[in-house]
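Good morning,

Attaching, inline, the backbone tokens for the sequence recovery test we're adding to the shared suite. The designed sequence is right after.
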């Protein structure tokens, strides 16, 4: 469903100072959308700050060479985040995904806006501009830029291209429709460099990351007649391999490479004692609904949630939910 951008244009025209935020543990769609939107707003003469619940992951730092994206309370204070005219949240609309930033949103007198493509979301008291048919929030920001008469160039074009490419599995997922490809093509025309971006994202692996993947993939278990694959990451794995938590990125997708697997999940121990779950599907199972059972959300084929530990109990709960969803999909 196409978004009517007119209400946002009215908000933009009547404001000068903006803060942008996205979800905890931001991915390329989050970071790329923020940087692309910052470029658009600044092209219109606006002042922009970016404040996230988490620091930018190391493997995405290349998108932000000047360090514009800050972790709230590190580089941008709560007071600075509150003292703006408009607070725009991109790529999420869920309170659970906005730790610390949620307090800013509850306190600020600024107008609040959500730009998102996920099905799940909460009432943030914001103007919600959502299109769940869009493959990435980066697509929405690219379309907003066109609506406002701004052409993202240079680093902004790279950032938005990266946002779109990663949320579509480098255009191999089923959400890579003609709309997505038209946006990507326009960004290439504006200077985005797919070859260099792919190299930065997928060809800069460290020996530690390779060792971590070897350890975690060695634990993959298949069940439900080979239709479900799952694995987990322990805190001890980082110690033994020298890897970083961001090195778990995309590991869950490797389970889907096995013929016959229709859905998969990975559980990652957190230093807080919680367990991060990532769900994937390439069949009829709607993993967004499964994620919602645990307070998370996402898309039909890619979603996530954070569960209480320990890992064994989290795994038992998720395994039951996934197997139930598989059984229901086969009987319908």
């Amino acid at each position: 469903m196409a978004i009517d951008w007119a209400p946002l244009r009215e908000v933009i025209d009547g404001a000068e100072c903006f803060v942008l935020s996205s979800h905890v543990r931001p991915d390329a769609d989050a970071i790329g959308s923020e940087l692309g939107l910052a470029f658009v707003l600044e092209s219109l003469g606006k002042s922009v700050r970016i404040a996230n619940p988490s620091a930018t992951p190391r493997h995405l730092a290349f998108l932000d060479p000047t360090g514009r994206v800050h972790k709230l309370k590190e580089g941008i204070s709560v007071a600075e985040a509150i003292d703006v005219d408009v607070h725009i949240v991109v790529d999420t609309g869920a309170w659970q995904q906005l730790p610390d930033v949620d307090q800013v949103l509850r306190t600020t007198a600024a107008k609040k806006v959500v730009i998102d493509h996920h099905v799940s979301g909460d009432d943030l008291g914001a103007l919600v501009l959502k299109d769940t048919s869009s493959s990435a929030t980066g697509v929405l920001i690219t379309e907003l830029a066109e609506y406002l008469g701004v052409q993202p160039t240079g680093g902004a074009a790279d950032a938005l291209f990266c946002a779109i490419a990663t949320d579509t599995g480098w255009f191999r997922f089923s959400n890579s429709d003609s709309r997505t490809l038209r946006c990507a093509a326009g960004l290439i025309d504006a200077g985005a460099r797919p070859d260099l971006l792919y190299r930065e994202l997928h060809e800069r692996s460290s020996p530690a990351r390779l060792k971590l993947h070897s350890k975690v993939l060695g634990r993959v278990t298949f069940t439900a007649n080979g239709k479900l694959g799952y694995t987990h990451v322990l805190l001890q794995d980082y110690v033994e391999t020298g890897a970083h938590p961001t090195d778990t990125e995309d590991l869950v997708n490797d389970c889907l490479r096995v013929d016959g697997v229709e859905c998969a999940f990975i559980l990652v121990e957190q230093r807080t004692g919680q367990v991060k779950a990532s769900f994937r599907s390439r069949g009829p199972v709607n993993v967004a609904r499964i994620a919602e059972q645990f307070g998370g959300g996402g898309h039909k084929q890619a979603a996530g949630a954070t569960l209480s530990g320990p890992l064994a109990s989290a795994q038992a709960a998720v395994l039951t939910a996934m197997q139930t969803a598989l059984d229901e999909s086969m009987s319908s």
